[in-house]
Amino acid sequence: MEIAGFKIQDIQQGYREGKFSPTEITKAYLERIKELDKGIQAFIHLNEEDALLQAKDVAEKIQKKETAGLLEGIPVAVKDNICTKGLRTTCGSKMLEDFIPPYDATLIKKLKEAGAIIIGKTNMDEFAMGSSTENSAFATTKNPWDTGKVPGGSSGGSAAAVAAGFAPLAIGSDTGGSIRQPASFCGVVGLKPTYGLVSRYGLIAFASSLDQIGPLTKTVEDCALSLQAIQGPDSMDATSYKERSAENYLEEIKGNIKGLKVGVPKEFFQKGLHGEIAKAIDKSMKLLEEMGAELEEFSLPIMDTALSAYYIISSAEASANLARYDGVRYGYRSEIFEGINELMVNSRTEAFGKEVKRRIMMGTYVLSSGYYDAYYNKAMMLRRKIKDSFSKAFENYDVILSPTSPILPFGIGEKMEDPLEMYLADIYTVSINIAGLPAISIPCGFSNTKLPIGLQLIGKPYQENQLLKAAYHLEQQLEIDTTIPALKEV
Ligand code: GLN
What reaction is this protein's catalytic activity (predicted)? Predict the structure, then answer.
């Protein structure tokens, strides 16, 4: 069975027509992964036995016509920072190399309730810190479009899995761009929902006030369907939204975009933006206009401050969140120590990678007395300013449009020695997390060297429907073929 190009909707249709069973589909994906993932390394580990059991379960339900979950029989790859009961969850770190969670994250519960089949856990930058998936303690994921390039990060494994046809749906987490930037690098659709829309219970925290779980898929329709299945209030997460009833995203995306007001922030198109990316975005803007959307350039001068504020706030929160990994309660424990202090120091020294240590140092520094006001408090003031700038912009616009990343997928190893260069890859994405807004990245073209280019749409809080609608119409007009060239066995 040729599944590489399958979308969620193709599989669902196949089930309806009785063309194949959930077991056949699950087997086909697992086989493809086993055959080709050596060259991509999208997965840290597979969930083979359990996935086949789940598939059998779903098949029985379908036969008995019991329920029709939104993701019935859909294989899904999950980023390895989301807790899966009985299935190793490493967070890409030696610290949690052997960690088997005793519970399922709310996301996993929802996926299972919807009938999805968890086929494996995907590679990521350690504790979701990075933009290239090179910070994983286990492997470097390759970009399926060009295996010499990075897939983006930190959800690089999830993005690569969808691009490579290893799963029609993958789940990622986004703290400063980690769903959208890899989606852009791998030519897939990636959505970071409004902060609070998807429960974070069971997501291993990086920066709690910024982290958000979201889907990566091949199409906007698949994205809308997946969001429908995973969103919703959760009493286990105090920051999950309470008052809103679920929208029907899939139905709403087909609506008209005539008169949709699209703001184009000119600061997102200035120095540092790759020429070919600018060109592709330009083409999409013209298409939107032809469809009746009203585009307008405006000024959103947050770029210089957003990146600094992001790295201060996220590192501060990370340093607190990662304090629990001390070699005592759970996680890696050093074998060489005398006394409790040395146990903690040695465990952390041996099990955390370079980037994680850098963030912890930065975070404790900006939180230390004497520097707290100079850095952390300033960053919090900037956070307020950034939020206000977006709120003001949304008085005039329904959505804001920008590139997802200023650069094309870069070479493996190219930016590892220069963390600041690496941080710049997130310049268009971090401010959205700071403001808690939803944003989507969709493929909008290719470079001359056939590397994917992503376009970002940013929305008002809980207005995912507007984003998805604009993205859907653009996708229909663009008609980009995102099937990757055949992968080689290695
Ligand atoms: N690349 C950014 C960082 O390193 C964002 C990471 C993320 O969104 N998890 O912090």
Answer: L-glutamyl-tRNA(Gln) + L-glutamine + ATP + H2O = L-glutaminyl-tRNA(Gln) + L-glutamate + ADP + phosphate + H(+)
The model's pTM is: 0.97
Using the mean position of ligand 1's atoms as its centre, give its distance from the Cα of residue 176 in Å: 5
Return d(Cα 395, Cα 40) in angstroms, integer. 44
CB 269 within 8 A of CB 392: no
Domain that holds residue 433: 1-490
Q: How far apart are CA 210 and CA 194, in angstroms?
A: 10
Q: Which of 265, 191, 198, 245 is nearest to 428 (CA)?
A: 265
Check if 192 is active-site.
no
The dihedral of CA 147, 148, 153, 154: what is its sign? positive
- Tell me if 437 sits within 8 A of 467, measured CB to CB: no
Classify burial at 356, counting beta carbons within 10 Å of its beta carbon; exposed 0-12, middle 13-18, buried 19 or more: buried
The 10 Å CB-count burial string (b at 16+, else e) for 126-154 is: bbbbbbbbbbbbbbbbbbbbbbebbbbbb
Q: Residue 319: beta bridge partners?
A: none
Q: Which residues pair with 189 in a beta bridge?
A: 217
Mean pLDDT by 10 residues, the chain (490 residues): 93 94 97 97 98 94 80 97 98 97 98 97 98 98 98 98 98 98 98 97 98 98 97 95 76 93 96 95 98 98 92 98 93 96 97 98 96 96 97 98 97 93 92 98 97 98 95 96 84
* 81 Cβ inside 6 Å of ligand 1: no
Ligand 1 within 6 A of CB of 168: no
**Which residues, 6 or more positions from 299, have their beta carbon under 8 angstroms from its beta carbon?**
265, 266, 267
Within 13 Å, how many C-alpha atoms sit on residue 175's CB side?
30
Q: How many domains does the chain have?
A: 1
For residue 48, the SS3 value is helix
467 phi and psi, to 5 degrees? -60, -50
Bridge partners of 411, per DSSP, are 149
79 catalytic per annotation: yes
* CB of 346 shorter than 6 A to ligand 1: no
10 Å CB burial of residue 190 (0-12, 13-18, 19+) is buried
Ordered alpha helix ranges (H), 291-436: 303-321, 339-351, 354-367, 378-396, 419-423, 430-435
Q: What is the CATH number for 198?
A: 3.90.1300.10
Residue 106 and residue 111: Cα distance in Å, rounded?
9
